[in-house]
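For anyone still unconvinced, we reproduce a single protein record, the chain in one-letter code, the fold tokenised, and leave readers to judge:
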Amino acid sequence: MGSGQKKVDRGANAIHEREAICAMIRREMKRMEYTFDEFAEAIHMSKSVLSQRLKGISEFKLIELITIADLLGIEIII
């Protein structure tokens, strides 16, 4: 690498982004006063899968994020 270039750890960035997305979803769920069970039902996802997604154990699929964003009134820019 030349001077001024910085090595980017894409794995760390991806983890940080997932954590930020999960935090935002939890924050908006709380703001809109959804219980965990209500939210899972509203997005047609089992409670166990939603729990895994929000804990970062497994990643959200794009269609799931679109569904969540629509429910929460959040614009997704791809």
Observations:
- Residues 32 and 72 are 8 Å apart (CA to CA).
- The two ends are 30 Å apart (CA to CA).
- Helices lie at 10-31, 36-42, 47-54, 62-72.
